[in-house]
Write a structure and sequence with these properties.
The chain is an all-alpha fold and 141 residues long. The protein has seven helices and no strands.
């Protein structure tokens, strides 16, 4: 009985960052959450350039739900990187970084980095199962 517990602990210890990145990149939730945070930050007052990102990220979620996981991961990673570049250009004084808006902005940028890494990993290493030439985006093998 104790031997089973030791084997289970060894198996959990062998898990690395790669399976977590793959699960993150294949999930439809992170782009939807990122779209929500971006819309919440830029809706009042309306800032039109940042408000272009939520529809694209929600489209990525739609692709993911319709079993185009590799394409959805690539789309999510690309739009997250574009938003990260846009958000890094804005400078805020130190006191504004620790307010509510600053914390939400930091969480949004952290989620962008996670989407960029997870989605980029799935897009770069994912294999499409239906087509040998790789033109169909249905599923990961």
């Amino acid at each position: 009985m104790a031997d089973k517990g030791i084997k289970k602990a060894e198996k959990e210890a062998q898990a690395s960052v790669i399976p977590y990145a793959r699960v993150w990149g294949e999930s439809p939730v992170p782009p939807a959450l990122l779209a929500t945070l971006i819309a919440a930050q830029h809706a009042r007052p309306p800032q039109f350039l940042p408000l272009l990102f939520p529809p694209a990220l929600l489209f990525s979620t739609y692709l993911n739900i319709n079993e185009y996981k590799i394409d959805a991961a690539g789309t999510s990673a690309a739009w997250s990187a574009l938003y990260l570049i846009l958000a890094r250009r804005r400078k805020h004084p130190l006191m504004q970084k620790w307010g509510t808006r600053g914390i939400i902005r930091g969480a949004t940028m952290g989620l962008c980095v996670a989407n960029l890494l997870g989605g980029g990993f799935v897009y770069a290493l994912g294999k499409r199962s239906n087509d040998a030439s790789g033109k169909d985006g249905a599923g990961i093998t």
